[in-house]
Amino acid sequence: MQQDDAYFPNPDANVRIDLIARIEASFSQQIPSGKRIAGWLLNNLAQIPFESADSIAGYTGTTGITVGRYLRKLGYRNLEDVKASLSAGPLPPLGRYRPAGCLAAAHPLESSQPLSASGG
């Protein structure tokens, strides 16, 4: 077992944990715009693959160039590099994150009568 395994027991989560760790490690040295970008990234990890630097800039009151500069300070080439690193491994199943019992509730339509083919 490598030393990192103790900190990252789920190998699928390593990439996200690495991004989070990079953001948190540099947070105190960031200027206000960098802190806004960091906050948005941390609060929207699942949304990152669907965004552009300009859209993130719009959410954070910065510019696309500032977003790119911030990501380079974290050690990424650009937003596409961040997206590639996030998609490097499979995502854990959604069921792991659902509260216990969430799947136990029956859908209301499951117990209803079948619909008539005659329409009336």
TrEMBL record:
PROSITE patterns noted in UniProt: HTH_RPIR
Main location: nucleus
Secretion signal, residue range per the UniProt entry: none
InterPro entries (alphabetical): Homeodomain-like_sf, HTH_RpiR, WH-like_DNA-bd_sf
Coiled-coil regions, chain positions: none
A GO cellular-component term linked to this record: nucleus
Protein name: HTH rpiR-type domain-containing protein
A molecular-function term among this protein's GO annotations: DNA-binding transcription factor activity
Source organism: Bracon brevicornis
Domain HTH rpiR-type per the UniProt entry, residue ranges: 17-93
